[in-house]
Amino acid sequence: ATEKTYEYLKVSTPRTGVALIQLHRPKALNALFTPLIRELNTTLRELDSDPSVGATVLTGSEKAFAAGADILEMRDKSFADAYGNDFIESWSELYNTIRKPVISAVNGHALGGGCELAMMCDILYCSQKANFGQPEIKLGVIPGAGGSQRLTRAIGKSRAMELILTGKNFSGQEAYDWGLAARVFETPEKCVEGALDTAETIAGYSKIAVKACKEVVNKSQDLGIKEGVEFERRVFHGLFGSEDQKIGMEAFAEKKKPEWTHR
Ligand code: CO8
């Protein structure tokens, strides 16, 4: 979004209202480690409070979205290091605190923590040959950034159990067929362009309504249907206090294009 320099990311604004974050640690296939995650979190937080940005696309390279958590960084950790410092907790900031939508455009390897990072995003797009997997079992551990929960919810228990217990990879086409990906594209370029198109559409809407949509859909993952519908209705009521609700409905009545606030 700005002229800032990044060590492990490339950040740009290729469309109006749309930020593109590209993970850029090519020598290690974008393996995720603390300095990269810190930079990612800072950038996402800045974009979240930047009124000119409405949605973000997160991608990697053609070769790798991210080949997992950095195994070399983890190798010598003790239980006290991991538990004491709540290792990985801060890696979920994308899901836990970011309120504007983030779309992942997954090409190449998305393994372990890479697959988990992609699944933390609000919408997952990929190209046919993307290579997903939770291979932690092969390293003597288990998924640590939500993989066992998010993959299971997305594709069902039996399939997720098979993948997590065998460490077998799956393709972008399979991710789409099983409902993990919202769309699958023929090529990496088309995948990133498709994600930017969707982000541009979202960025054209009321920011407050977009945040509310994201919040209520995410709540469906935590609440039962009755509580979820009740929560949705309360947030819906709340939007009648926003300027954008008046702007949107007035524009419809007058057959005009709405000019949203930038709040
Ligand atoms: N960690 C550290 N370095 C890595 C990683 C990684 N996960 N993946 C690749 N690299 C490095 C390689 O060591 C290699 O470095 P160098 O050139 O210095 O030897 C470089 O990237 C290129 O890799 P390869 O030569 O292996 O490239 P190939 O094209 O032959 O193979 C693979 C690509 C198949 C992706 C292969 O690199 C591989 O199997 N990587 C490891 C995949 C893996 O097991 N990932 C899961 C890690 S465990 C995990 O993520 C736990 C989740 C915890 C939560 C995370 C929160 C977000």
UniProtKB/TrEMBL annotation:
The keyword Endoplasmic reticulum does not apply. Its EC number is 4.2.1.17. It comes from the Eukaryota. GO terms for molecular function: enoyl-CoA hydratase activity. Keywords: Fatty acid metabolism, Lipid metabolism, Lyase, Virulence. It comes from Saxophila tyrrhenica. It holds the Pfam family ECH_1. One of its GO terms (cellular component) is mitochondrion. Belongs to the enoyl-CoA hydratase/isomerase family. InterPro entries: ClpP/crotonase-like_dom_sf (IPR029045), Enoyl-CoA_hyd/isom_CS (IPR018376), Enoyl-CoA_hydra/iso (IPR001753), Enoyl-CoA_hydra_C (IPR014748). This is Probable enoyl-CoA hydratase, mitochondrial. GO terms for biological process: fatty acid beta-oxidation. The keyword Lyase applies.
